[in-house]
Amino acid sequence: MDVERNLLCSGQRDCVTFFPYLQISYGATDPSLSDRVAFPYIYRTVQSDEEEYIALCKLLKYFGWNWIGIIQFDDYIGYQNHQLLVKYLSREGICVAFTIKLARTPKANAPKQTLIMKSSTDIIIICGDGGTLSSEGLYHVRRSLSKKTCIFLSKWLNHLESSEGVFLDYCGGSLLFAQKGIRDQLDPRFIEFSDSFHPSKYPEDNLLEDIWLWKFSCLSKDEDKNEYLESVSYSLYNCSSGEEKLTALPNYLNLYHSPSLMYAVEMMSLALTHMHNSLPKQSFQNNKMYKFQLHHHLKNISYTRNGSPALSFNEKGEFVNQYEIVTEQFDPSGNWSWNIVGNYVPWALPEQRLTLSPEKIIWETPRNKVPRAQCSSSCPSGFWKAMKAGILTCCYECVQCPEGEISNRADSESCIPCPKMEWSSKKRTQCIAKMEDFLVNTSAFAVFFSASSLLFFLTTLLILGVFIAHRETPIVRANNRSLSFLLLVSIKLSFLSVFLFLGRPVDITCMLRIITFGITFSIAVSSLLAKTIMVCVAFKATKPGSSWRKWLGVKLSNSVVLFCSSIQIIICMTWLAISPPFQELDIHTSPGTIIIQCNEGSAIGFYSVIGYMGLLAAVSFVLAFLARSLPDSFNEAKYITFSMLLFCSVWITMIPAYLSTKGKNTVCVEIFAILTSSAGLLACIFLPKCYSIFCRPKLNTKSYIIRMKA
User: Fold this and answer.
1) Cα–Cα distance between 176 and 434 in angstroms, integer?
2) Has residue 115 got a pLDDT over 70?
């Protein structure tokens, strides 16, 4: 009968031979059978290999193992399982260090021991079905496995159980995948049923007689068989007591296949029962309808046994079960058993599917350290994995992140750029606020400039006091004391303007810096220009009948100062109105540093202010140079010449220095130019007068002036 013939199928893809009849397999785990379009009538009471490979990859990634070896057996199943395993490993970024095909002979396997021992990985996956030939292959390379950790898949469970874990001893440590509870799923009725068989009860059953002959060394009714076995050193016994049991045979209770075999039989039985109860008897005459109805009932059946959770087929026609991850353990008496160290639940959330208790695992390594299975060492935080050209992705170099980028976790594939206002720490593990670069009030330069500015300010204030005290003396009166007072006040303000350049720049200080100095210094230079003009006019007015006499007086000098200063004020106001200076954060010039500086806003405005001061200084210099030899008792022209020469020299050299520096260095250049040019005016114009007032008071008398004119 077709249904009877196709009820059970144990091969990986043997069931396909009987398509399109309904089939249940208790051992086919090939993932391709999950394709319901190609195989709509195939059911399996086992789980596809796919989920086990996914669980294996989760385990490898949990311990950071991405460089593993594979041992497969030189047969079709070994080849097929190896192809599937590599497919899932590569999907998870796990590389294969080596693949070894074990043959049946020790001689063929001998060179492979060297390859295993020299390999840099400590993790080896045993791929393929467990069996006698597979066990022999592992035995041939057992010495090379003594310092490796082996991972066995669930297909090895039965073979390892029957051998009491002897193959696990070949490896330095072992992990095994097993379907959850599979060791407890044998029906006691099946054991009772198996133990009920004995040749004494069924004397006509030749199969039972042969099993007892070969497995229990029991005498057979066939004397020829007895003679043959005794000739090859077998000792035969009379087994009439009935103490021998089938369940005592190694590997009889097949822990991998037996539960799924019983499930297959019982599920098919239930489906047939449901179908029989739901259809009229005449419908069974239609074989085609019979098959499709059975398919319908089997697909929707739910089954439970001994209070276990209900079992049913999923949409792929297979059972889904949890996996246990186990290791071998020995009790004080030396008895061998399994120790559950983890679970894998396929239907849980992705991040919750794998649960492990690493502390339960006893690694055969120094200090019980987790075995190493990495082509390259793990890259710490602050480094990234730079792949080596032409080598597997698991082999890489750890390269420190460049400046301005970080990696805040181990084994980063790339570095993360820091935000614009932040920079990487020295170890490249975090982004920190960039250092701010400006002329801090407490810095050495700031203290020096502050002290110098204050000293010059006090000196100017002292000179102003001296001039006020001696305002009626010939020296002070002869050089237009009102212009001298205005000049001293403007120089004082120029010195004080230095403090606008110190500290963190803000918009208001940026606007006041150059404008304050530009206006105050323009007033000072305008005063010198007015003094020079007055010297020239005074010389012209000494000639009889000269028309220059009407220009003598304070009106001309005041007009010159007011006119020249007004032009600078207009330039500054226009600059502020159109494009005023503002605070600028320069994050590009110096990596890791924010240069806080003042942006001129308009380069034309900035250079117009500087250029106009230069123009006034140049005009003053020319006029003073021409008037330096005019006869006058207190002719200041030569002092003005030197002061303007100094001013022009300082500011001409300041321009390239200003353009070639950034941040606080630019500010230092500006402050130096301001202090030098202002101090030059103070020294050249007023120190000679102070010298005459204090050191040579005779020069500051009317009698001396009359005598000089005579």
Assistant:
1) 53
2) yes
Q: What is the number of helices (H) and of strands (E) in the chain?
A: 20, 22
pLDDT at site 6: 35
Q: Is the dihedral of CA 197, 200, 205, 211 positive or negative?
A: positive
Retrieve residue 478's tokens.
Answer: 């002869």
Spatial CB neighbours of 199, under 8 Å, sequence gap ≥ 6: 205, 208, 209, 212, 218, 239
Q: Which amino acid is at 120?
A: S
**CB neighbourhood size of 234 (10 A):** 12
Q: How far is 627 from 540, CA to CA, in rounded Å?
A: 11
3-class state of residue 317 by DSSP: coil
Q: Rounded CA gap, 545 and 589, in Å?
A: 67
Report residue 586: phi and psi, to 5°.
-95, 110
CA 60, CA 363: separation in Å to the nearest integer?
15
**147 in Cβ contact with 172 (< 8 Å):** yes
Cα separation, 461 vs 471, whole angstroms:
15
Angle at 148 between CA 106 and CA 121, to 5 degrees: 105
> What SS3 string covers 24-76?
EECCCCCHHHHCCCCCCCEEECCCCHHHHHHHHHHHHHHCCCCEEEEEEECCH
Residue-by-residue DSSP string for 112-130: HHHHHHH-S--EEEE-S--
Tens-digit pLDDT profile for residues 357-382: 998 888 888 888 889 888 888 889 99
Q: At what angle do helices 287-300 and 258-278 cross, to 10 degrees?
A: 120
**What is the structure's pLDDT at 695?**
82
Domain definitions of the chain by residue range: 1-46+255-307, 49-184, 202-245, 383-433, 444-709
Residue type for 676, please? T
Read off the pLDDT band of 12 (50, 70, 90): very low
Amino acid identity at 27: G
Is the previous residue joined to 20 through a cis bond, with omega within 30 degrees of 0? yes
Topology of the domain comprising 444-709: Rhopdopsin 7-helix transmembrane proteins (1.20.1070)
333 vs 507, more confident:
507
Q: Please give the torsion angle defined by the CA atoms of residues 688, 689, 690 and 694, in that order, rounded to the nearest 10 degrees.
A: 110
Q: 585-607 as b/e, with b when 16 or more CB fall inside 10 Å? A: eeeeeeeebbbbbbbbbbeebbe
Relative orientation angle of helices 664-695 and 507-541, to the nearest 10 degrees: 40
**Which CA distances in Å does 162 have to 105, 135, 166?**
23, 12, 9
Q: What is the DSSP string of 523-574?
A: HHHHHHHHHHHHHHHHHHHTSTT-GGGGG-SHHHHHHHHHHHHHHHHHHHHH
Q: What is the pLDDT of residues 396-434, one digit of tens each?
A: 889 999 999 999 998 888 999 999 889 999 999 999 999
Q: Going by DSSP bridges, is the β-strand pair 95-102/123-126 parallel, antiparallel, or unpaired?
A: unpaired
In the CATH scheme, what architecture does the domain 49-184 have? 3-Layer(aba) Sandwich (3.40)
| Residue type for position 334 | G
Which pLDDT score is estimated for 505? 92
> What is the rounded distance in angstroms from the CA atom of residue 194 to the CA atom of residue 449?
105
How many Cβ atoms from other residues are within 10 Å of residue 441's Cβ? 12
CB atoms < 10 A from the CB of 507, how many?
12
Angle at 334 between CA 140 and CA 151, to 5 degrees: 40
Whole-number pLDDT of residue 2: 31
Please give the Cα distance from 582 to 253 (Å, whole number): 88
Contact indicator for 65, 93 with CB cutoff of 8 Å: no
Amino acid at 428: R
Asked if pLDDT for residue 13 goes beyond 50, the answer is: no
